[in-house]
């Protein structure tokens, strides 16, 4: 394993080095939180694909393939569909808003203080997303070094917190680009063909497995529908995803770069399912489907290649973890803390804003690592996060973008009713049940429509300012994109 260890150590050292280099570019709030809004198509596509394809998409996607066959691709497939929908229908308008958070968008659209409550819901979502990614370090480092779970979480989490704190979005963008390349080589170009060949090819796989493993709908229609509700719609409104949209150099970059990333996700989904299906042929009696990825890597790949593929898994986890961490810190600082203490003092300069956001990344990073150590069930934590996000925020966000009659009172009612309904229903039906997101989303929609219709329409001046921002004409001068390409 010495060669494999060397590959991993060099990779981790490179992540820290890029964090240090990114620190030199993060000179303003815009640089630190959204990479100066300067990313071109290639870098934007790579980093967007990196953040949405995390440990759940890689280790979990292979596990679903092991359990259900090709239909196990649906979870990651719906993530790709959500990214495509966001890119084609909404990303251009989102990019032109020149904001930093989803809650700022809600305040602009509704002309009220909808941001505080929505900020709390978004903070809970991004925190749990970061926690689930951080827990995944334990699985990877256990395969590599037979390391204690707590030590593995602290080691992996500390590296992500370090480079994210140093350079903010610039560091995360640089590391994500490397992680995208490593994932592409490790999973698509190496593990996929090797796994299929070791399993005897598709003909041998079909001969040894039930026909349901090759049924595209074998996982079940209700499960697919739930994935669409949670992941496809979740991609449309998550702070971690929107914050990447804000990094685009132009609205065209956001649209077409995101479309490329979404298409890549579809291919990645199928690859994970095929690898899992091959693992079922090779190791038919694993204790858990989630062990499929680590087992096939450890048992079937040659020295050196094994290290690169494990680095790919680590890259997948780190990209999602760092993206969720900066999103969590951005929401905590800009949407919650700054509002609780009052308006940000005008005397604060760019250096102070960078320092403040850097402190919040460090604080949120420590909180994420501590929570990850305390929790064991990744699936439950991720389900709670997405249920809260979709049940509480989907309706007011999409309603604000699509329905002129929506009001701030309707938005607040929607967030409150939907969020509380999801929490109550998870307590009643169970965290992993489908009913909480179904009924929570319905309650949120009813509250939004009814309250909006019985309250005074949004002031025309607010809507006019909103339309100006959507057209890209109302952003402050300081927020205009720099001429430097990236």
TrEMBL record:
Organism name: Streptomyces glomeratus
Similarity annotation: Belongs to the sodium:solute symporter (SSF) (TC 2.A.21) family.
Location in the cell: Membrane
InterPro entries reported for this sequence: Na/Glc_symporter_sf, Na/solute_symporter, Sodium:Solute_Symporter
Record keyword Transcription present: no
Keywords: Membrane, Transmembrane, Transmembrane helix, Transport
Main location (coarse class): membrane
Source species, domain of life: Bacteria
Transmembrane segments: 6-23, 44-66, 72-95, 116-140, 152-173, 180-197, 217-238, 259-283, 303-332, 359-378, 384-403, 410-431, 437-455
Protein name as annotated: Sodium:solute symporter
Keyword Transport: yes
Membrane topology: Multi-pass membrane protein
């Amino acid at each position: 394993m010495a060669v494999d260890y060397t590959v991993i150590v060099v990779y981790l050292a490179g992540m820290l080095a890029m964090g240090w280099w990114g620190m030199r570019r993060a000179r303003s709030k815009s640089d630190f939180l959204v990479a100066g809004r300067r990313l071109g198509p290639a870098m934007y596509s790579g980093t967007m694909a990196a953040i949405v394809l995390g440990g759940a998409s890689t280790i979990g996607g292979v596990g679903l393939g092991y359990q259900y066959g090709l239909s196990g691709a649906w979870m990651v497939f719906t993530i790709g569909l959500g990214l495509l929908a966001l890119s084609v229908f909404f990303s251009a308008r989102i990019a032109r808003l020149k904001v930093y958070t989803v809650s700022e968008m809600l305040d602009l659209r509704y002309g009220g203080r909808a941001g505080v409550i929505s900020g709390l819901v978004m903070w809970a979502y991004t925190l749990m997303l970061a926690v689930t990614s951080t827990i995944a370090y334990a699985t990877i480092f256990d395969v590599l070094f037979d390391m204690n779970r707590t030590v593995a979480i602290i080691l992996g989490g500390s590296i992500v917190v370090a480079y994210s704190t140093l350079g903010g979005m610039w560091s995360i963008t640089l590391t994500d680009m490397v992680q995208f390349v490593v994932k592409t080589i490790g999973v698509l170009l190496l593990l996929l063909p090797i796994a299929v060949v070791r399993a005897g090819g598709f003909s041998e796989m079909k001969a040894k497995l039930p026909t349901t493993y090759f049924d595209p709908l074998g996982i079940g229609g209700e499960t697919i529908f739930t994935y669409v509700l949670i992941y496809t719609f979740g991609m449309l409104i998550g702070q971690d995803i929107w914050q990447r949209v804000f990094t685009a150099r132009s609205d065209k970059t956001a649209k077409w770069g995101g479309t490329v990333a979404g298409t890549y996700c579809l291919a990645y989904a199928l690859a994970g399912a095929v690898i899992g299906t091959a693992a079922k042929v090779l190791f038919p009696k694993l204790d858990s489907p989630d062990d499929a990825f680590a087992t096939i890597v450890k048992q079937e790949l040659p020295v050196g290649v094994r290290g690169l593929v494990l680095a790919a898994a680590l890259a997948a986890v780190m990209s999602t973890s760092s993206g969720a961490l900066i999103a969590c810190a951005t929401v905590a600082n800009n949407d919650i803390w700054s509002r609780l203490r009052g308006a940000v003092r005008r005397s604060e300069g760019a250096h102070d804003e960078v320092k403040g956001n850097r402190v919040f990344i460090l604080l949120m990073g420590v909180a994420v690592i501590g929570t990850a150590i305390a929790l064991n069930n990744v699936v439950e934590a991720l389900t709670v996060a997405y249920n809260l996000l979709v049940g509480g925020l989907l309706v007011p966000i999409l309603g604000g973008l699509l329905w002129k009659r929506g009001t701030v009172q309707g938005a607040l009612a929607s967030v409150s009713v939907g969020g509380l309904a999801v929490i109550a229903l998870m307590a009643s039906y169970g965290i992993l049940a489908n009913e909480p997101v179904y009924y929570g989303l319905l309650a949120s929609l009813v509250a939004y429509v009814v309250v909006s219709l019985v309250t005074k329409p949004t002031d025309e001046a607010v809507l006019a300012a909103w339309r100006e921002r959507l057209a890209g004409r109302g952003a402050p001068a300081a927020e205009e994109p720099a001429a430097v390409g990236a």
